[in-house]
Amino acid sequence: MMYALLITPARAEQVRKAVKEYGEVVFEQAEVMDSPGIRNALQSAARVAADVLILDIDAGPGPDLVAAVQGYRIARPYTRIFLLAPGRQTGDATVARLVGLGVYDIIDGPVEADWGALVAQALTRVPATYAQAARWHVMSGLTGEEQVKEKVVIEQRPVGVVTIAVAGAAPGLGCTHTALAICAFLARQGHNVALVEDSQNPVMQDYLKIIKADDGRVSNAWRIKGFDVFPFAKTGVDKFIERDGNFIFDELLPELRAGRYEYIVRDLGVAGKKRTREAFRSNLAVLVASAARWRWGDLLRIEPLSSFSLALVAPAEREVKEIRKIPELKAYVMPHHPDPFSMPDETLAELLRPVLPQAKKKSSFWPWKRG
């Protein structure tokens, strides 16, 4: 297991010693930070493929810590987060808001406790659920009562922002076309959506200028068909450059957080080893491919293929049947449709079913009197 640590100096040595018994520390920052500091620290941590993040609630100001964790959740939806909450009691607003972001592993105790021992005990337990963290999801009201925000957890939908990665098994199969279709579909369903272009052959900036797209919700974004687009900005020599090995997605975390998007769709271009790893950072990885037998070689180089949802472009029925014989492979038929913004909803709803809410309910507040 690989661990990232964002902790205060007071607990750094204890936590560091405990974690090294269970795995490798791949990122560490031990200090009390201001607003820009905690934001930059979590952005840096998001660029490291850690399995677990251990976060000290005293590492930064509460509201800024919450906002920074939301950005981290966008980039690393599957990383397990442990929150150290020394001296915090039920009713703490910062803890409550972090629980709302899906941080359920709360480690609490007196400030002077042995935090190494507490962390070691927590690391041996199975991941906590909302039911175990619900007592923290409480905020003091103005009337002297307390209110518990009831968060509806939708089956098969991850907590927080949902990221969808779209890659192509080979050039020219319609990766960008499919990404646009997904965004348009989600926008039609009333969701707040962003498309991030991380393709080797970026085309969106020129397209947006040609159609004279409107400004988006936040800086660096353009708006079309009810959703925001973050195009990759080409250099003066029209060459695609991933600065310092990062994708534009990593550079845009502040804007993506500010936009409060429900869904973020990444157009990753042609899948290679690096882009395949990026795809698996998402909640749903879609691979656009041809079902033609002479193109099956494109699929053989993708590993692990079974981790993708396979979007087959205008396939023949016989070829679909053959591909669906492959064990554990999830294959969906994408009919030929030249306009990505009006692709049939039924087709996209089936592909996106794992990350779509099954029912929409509003959060409600239930009053509880202090005991």
Key descriptive features of the protein:
alpha/beta, Rossmann fold, disordered C terminus, 24% strand, nine-stranded mixed β-sheet, 14 helices, 371 residues
Strand order of the largest sheet: 10-11-12-9-13-8-14-15-16
Question: Percent range for helical residues?
Answer: 25-40%
User: What is the name of the CATH class of the largest domain?
Assistant: Alpha Beta
Radius of gyration: 22 Å
Provide the residue-averaged pLDDT.
84
What's the architecture of the largest domain in CATH terms? 3-Layer(aba) Sandwich
The tally of strands reads 17
CATH topology of the largest domain: Rossmann fold
Cα shape: globular
- The CATH homologous superfamily of the largest domain is called P-loop containing nucleotide triphosphate hydrolases
Poorly predicted tracts of residues: 140-158, 235-241, 360-371
Structural class by secondary-structure content:
alpha/beta
Assembly type of the chains comes to: single chain
Span of the ends, CA to CA: 42 Å
Keywords: Plasmid
Protein name: P-loop containing nucleoside triphosphate hydrolase
InterPro entries: P-loop_NTPase
Organism: Neomoorella glycerini
